[in-house]
Amino acid sequence: MRIATFNVNGVNGRLDLLLRWLAATKPDVVCLQELKAPQERFPHAALEKAGYGAIWHGQKAWNGVAILARGQTPLETRRGLPGDPDDVQSRYIEAVIDGIVVGCLYAPNGNPAPSPKFDYKLRWFDRFRSYAADLIELDLPVVLAGDFNVMPTDLDVYAPDRWRDDALFRPEVREAFAGLVNDGWIDAVRHLHPSERIYTFWKYLRNAFGRNAGLRIDHFLVSPALADEVVAAGVDREVRGWPRTSDHAPVWLRLR
């Protein structure tokens, strides 16, 4: 099984790019983030024509997450994180596909820090870690994939000293991610590539992609039940070089 995650940065505006990538790589499962589309404007018909069933949690203008499955419709198991009934931002959706629980997430950016936005980011991570701990206790095969908006270590950012005060690299955020790993989740890409500089995001400014001035902020966390099943992981880096593309590249892993 090939599972991918892709912050598409506008699913309708970049639908042709998404369909081109799906046709070229044929992932079995795809987690999409930053749909920037209300529920009624998600392009499910075009995706069905391309061979993918979908569930999605849209939101006007910002946020939004979706899960696609090739040749089937994902069985939805959760929409939104527990712990705050007043949180209406579309940042988490979950489904079962071929016996695997797949959670798709789009964590808050949190900038500027400190600020109320940064406080919300930390609260969101607390809720996410609490729910993820419940999933671990079930001893099921689980993949949590998406844009975590965190660079876990200095190895995950092209110029660490320039990012120390950014909400994606603040100690509190890196500690939140490390807490997930300490709870038993496995950072699949880093597990397979422990010392390699791998980036998944490059800003549009100052030729960041051409200079490879990137960040690794899109991640896969896999549960202990899948630890021995992850056999490969990587980044479809070339997609970031396509015209009118997202500032993220798709990231993928392959399960045995």
UniProtKB/TrEMBL annotation:
Where along the sequence does the record put site: Transition state stabilizer? 149
* Interaction with DNA substrate (site feature) positions: 248
Which InterPro entries does the entry link to?
Answer: AP_endonuc_1, AP_endonuclease_F1_BS, AP_endonuclease_F1_CS, Endo/exonu/phosph_ase_sf, Endo/exonuclease/phosphatase, ExoIII-like
All copies of domain Endonuclease/exonuclease/phosphatase, residue ranges: 4-248
Cofactor names from the entry are: Mn(2+); Mg(2+)
Q: Where is this site: Important for catalytic activity?
A: 218
GO MF term list: DNA binding; double-stranded DNA 3'-5' DNA exonuclease activity; endonuclease activity; metal ion binding
Q: Which CDD domains match?
A: ExoIII-like_AP-endo
Cofactor binding note of this UniProt entry: Probably binds two magnesium or manganese ions per subunit.
Q: Which UniProt keywords apply?
A: Hydrolase, Magnesium, Manganese, Metal-binding
Question: Keyword Magnesium: yes or no?
Answer: yes
Q: Which residues bind Mg(2+)?
A: 7, 34, 147, 149, 247-248
Q: Which domain of life is it from?
A: Bacteria
Q: What positions does UniProt annotate as the active site of this protein?
A: 106, 147 (proton donor/acceptor), 248 (proton acceptor)
Checking Gene3D superfamilies in the record gives: Endonuclease/exonuclease/phosphatase
**Some GO term, biological process aspect, for this entry: which one?**
DNA repair
Pfam families in UniProt: Exo_endo_phos
Q: Which family does it belong to?
A: Belongs to the DNA repair enzymes AP/ExoA family.
Would you tell me the protein name for this molecule?
Exodeoxyribonuclease III
Species whose genome carries this gene? Azorhizobium oxalatiphilum
